[in-house]
Amino acid sequence: MTVWKASTALFGAVTLAVMTGGGASAAPAAPGGWQESGTSYINSLTGSQGLASRADGSLLHRGLGSIPLDLRVKGWGHIGDPDVADGHTFDAYQGGDTAQSKMYAVTTPGGQRYLYEHKLDAGEKLNNSFAAVSPDNQWLVSGEWGEQNRLQVFPAPLLNSSTPPTGGALPQAGQISLDKPVRDVQGCDFVSDSRLVCASNDASKELWPEDRPVLQVDLARPLDGKPVTGRVTSLFAAPQRSLCSGTFETEGIDYDSVRRTLRVEVVPPAPCLVTTAVHAYRPTTV
User: Fold this and answer.
1) What is the CATH number of the domain that holds 185?
2) Domain-embedded: residue 188
3) Which helix or strand (DSSP H or E) is residue 275 part of?
4) Residue 15: which residues within 8 A CB-CB, separation 6 or more?
5) Distance CA 207, CA 71 (A)
6) What is the tally of structural domains in the chain?
7) Pairwise CA distance, residues 137 & 84, whole Å
8) Which residues of 54-75 are buried (b: 16+ CB within 10 A; e: fewer)?
């Protein structure tokens, strides 16, 4: 949920400083079966809000500078962590503090964009932090801000035949009820049809022992549009390494199932926040 405020004039100098002096000399082993394998950097203006891997292995990045002008004019001022499924790009959009709906934009491989708007249900927060499409391309998982005991589930716009073919209304399906609360989840992605990994920006250590934990959610069964339970465990703390001191922010997360690579984004404190760190992990077990 970062608001990008730093001057782009600082970008080159800070990028060089961060890349040459901000990383650890050796990649530590992480609990939960993941080994850190490297760190790359992306311009925060176009990459600090999230990322998704394409079929060819390239990465799609999103930042506040990624919001098209026509959508910004309509009041969609925040873009979340995206996903790519069957060549389609899924973006999660959020309006202002008085918004009564949230929106998902789906861009086809041919470049056509369709908008799916969900009017908030009773008790639903307006936040739209991320979009994560199930491996069968039928369900879209999303999340709200603050402390939550659930993840939201929608039919995957365009790919699920129950949704309008050219955009329209998007009702909720059966949600994921979590056995333990989570807080400030910035992004999730599927590792398998019944497991997600999620990036939390919770630094309180009240719910989990790690500062800004990467969480794992194991579903009782693959999503089918009906309510399902999810068991939450903490895998490891997102790295907080920078020449700048202050408050970090965990952002997007992605799992490339073909190349078996997990990536987690972390925005460093000002003035280093002009460059977002993308930490990569490989599984330590088959």
Assistant:
1) 2.120.10
2) yes
3) strand 275-283
4) 41, 274, 275
5) 36
6) 1
7) 10
8) eeeeebbbbbbebbeeebeeee
Rounded to 5 degrees, what are φ and ψ at 205?
A: 60, 20
CA dist., res. 44 & res. 202, Å (int): 20
Beta pairing partners, 147:
183
Token pair 């999303």 in the structure block, residue: 142
Using one digit for the tens of pLDDT, what is the confidence trace for 205-261?
Answer: 999 999 999 999 999 999 999 999 999 999 999 999 999 999 999 999 999 999 999
Residue 47, phi then psi, degrees to nearest 5: -145, 5
In this structure, what are the phi and psi dihedrals at residue 274, rounded to the nearest 5 degrees? -70, -15
Pairing relationship of beta strands 176-183 and 29-30 according to DSSP bridges: unpaired
Q: Which domain holds residue 104?
A: 8-283
Domain presence at residue 3? no
Q: Structure tokens of 226?
A: 């009906």
Among residues 277, 260, 258, the alpha carbon closest in space to that of 51 is found at: 277
Does the reported pTM lie above 0.85?
yes
Pairing assessment for the beta strands 139-142 and 275-283 based on DSSP bridges: unpaired
8 Å CB contact between 44 and 51: no
Give domain status of residue 212, yes or no: yes
Within-domain flag for 101? yes
